[in-house]
Structures are given as C-alpha cells and as structure tokens.
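User: Structure with S-adenosylmethionine, tokens only please.
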Amino acid sequence: MSEEKRGSLYLSATPIGNLEDMTFRAVRMLGEADLIAAEDTRHTRKLLSHYDIHTAATSYHEHNKLTKGPELVAKMLAGAVIVCVSDAGLPGISDPGAHLAQLAVEAGIPVSPLPGANAALSALICSGLDTTAFAFYGFLPKSVKKRRELLENIKNHQETLIFYEAPHHLKETLHQLAEALGAGRRAVAARELTKRYEEFNRRSLGELLTYYQENEPRGEFVLLVEGYDASCQEAEESCVPAASPAELVQALEQQGLSRKEAMRETAKKLGMSRRDVYQLLLQQDV
Ligand code: SAM
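Assistant:
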C-alpha cells in the first residue's frame, strides 16, 4: 500500500447515484487493498468494474456482522488492509460498517475514512435550511410507540432535522411529521440526489403531504425539516400551531363552527388542503 498502514481498516464512501462521485484516493485505495468488505458484493462489483478494480470482495452486512466482523479483525491483525463499503454513501450511516469500526478500534487497529458521498449532508447543504446545527435521525423507528416518543422528544429541537425514508412510506411519515411537529413547518424533500431526476421539493410539511398524495413518490428521499422556532409561539398565524389537525377541528367545533367550517379553518391555519384534513379525520376516525 502506498499509504503504508498495514493491518488497517478504511471506511470508504461510494456514490449515492452518480458513479463519478468517487474520489481519486478512494479508487486507488480500493484497488490497492487486500480485501473489500462490501454490504452486497454483486452491487459493489458494478462500481469496481466501472473503475477497473480487481480486488477480492467479501460480504459484510447486518446479518453476518457478528461472525464476519471478528474474522475480518483477525485478518487485519495479521496485516491485511481492508476497505469496508456499503451499497451507497458512507458505511455506518444507516448502513453496515459501524460495528466493524468498533471491533477494529477495540482491537487497536487503525481506522481511517475515505470520505465522499452521503445523502443526508448532500441534501442538507442544498436545502436552504439552517446548516449551522442539525440532527440526523436516519429512518424513524418502525414501532409506532417509539416513533411517537422520538417525535415528541425532538419537536422543540431548534436544529434542522434530517430523516431517510423509502418512497412507499413517505406519505405516512410526512403525515406523522406534520402531526407531531406542525404542518406549517418548512421542509424539503430531496429526491434522487446526483441522479437524472434529482429534485428539491421545498414546501411546508402539510403542503408536501398534499403534493405526494397527488403525485406518487418515486425514488430515494431525504426529508429535512426546519427546527423549532421559539418565536413561533407568539406569531401563531404564520407559524406552527401546537395542535394536530384533529385537535384543531374539534376545538373549533367546540367554539360553535360546523364540521365543514372547522375543516376549512384548520386547513388554512396548518397550510394544508381541505382534502388532507378530511382524510386525516377519516383515518383517525374523528
Ligand atoms: N449510507 C448512505 C448514506 O451515507 O447516505 C445511506 C444508506 S440508507 C440504507 C438509504 C437511504 O438513504 C435511502 O432510503 C434514502 O433515504 C437515502 N438516500 C440514498 N441515496 C439517495 C439519493 N440519491 N437521493 C436521496 N436520498 C438518498
């Protein structure tokens, strides 16, 4: 190896769409390594072929990490240089890699990054939202209870919030984010980054929900939501109401408005379409 770090682990970024998003150094190191530990060897083989790299690859993923991790550590202790990659972006970020890094650190093996593409940060820097402080949550927990708890915990956080989501869960997640954080919050759906149909959809959470109810989400998405703004508490009209759509409709009905009027008023206050408010009420059986 030209960098002369025998017996070490490198964690290398790989493209999140555009095959050209590889650094010269990552390409060279992948070519010079003794072994590549890849989340999916067939997937990585396409990247390696593109760069004419012939290094041996072995699979390392969530389901074999407990047995494969120690084997890879033993190889590195014997002097091997291993580069760990995931299918896309940075290993260890919503992808395998973090556990191997931990094992290597515990074994006293040097661990180095080969930086590059990452969906969350690529989305953040182009979002137009605050980049000075942000929090990355990756995929929200699957359990409804844990999801609610997390959103409840972070609803007053002032930093920009970043989430990953699959297209078939996007609407459901937008709905829950709108409900927990307020439909009026500014948000961005960053889609298909670095690919042909790259798109930044900048709207309120409520408007994003309406948009994707009318336009089926396709491709890969990063969702970004602006942080809580304490000044919003006073300026209710333009900012985030604390109540969910259902709560607001019920409160307005108690003030004497008809269901139709309450839905219209709620839609206006939360920056949502009347149809969305109606559908939320139906879903929640209110
Ligand atoms: N390790 C990757 C990284 O560093 O960004 C993330 C891998 S995670 C399994 C995959 C998720 O990342 C997708 O579901 C999507 O939310 C996001 N993602 C990956 N590539 C993307 C792209 N080109 N455009 C938008 N989001 C992307």
